[in-house]
Amino acid sequence: MAALMTGFLGTLFLYEALKRIRFSVANVMRATSPIILAFVSYPFFPVKLTTLNIFGAVILILSVLIIGVVDFKKHSTLNKKNSDETALES
Question: By percentage, how much of the chain surpasses pLDDT 70?
Answer without folding.
Answer: 71
